[in-house]
Amino acid sequence: MTPQTSITLAKQLLLACDQSYFDATHPPTPDLGPLPDKESTEPDYNNPAIYTDEPEFLWEDGYEFNSKIEDPGTGAKLVIYRNPGNGEVIVAFGGTDGLNLQDWFSNSQSVGWNQWIALNNPATNDLFGKLAALNPSSIHFTGQSLGGALAQYAAYEYVDQERKADPTGTYVPSNVSLTTFNGLGAVWGLTGNIKNDQGQPAYDPGMLTGLGSATHYVVANDLVPRLGGGHIGADGDVVYLDWEYLGGESVGKPMDLADAHRIETAFYTHLDSTAFALGLSGTSEAGLLDGTFLLDAPGAVSLAGAIGGLLNDEKLSAPEALFRLIAGVGGSSLFGNPQDINTVAQAAFKAQYDAGKMSESSYTILSNTPMGWLAKAIFLTQPGLAALSGPLLAASLVLTGE
Question: pTM for this structure?
Answer without folding.
Answer: 0.91
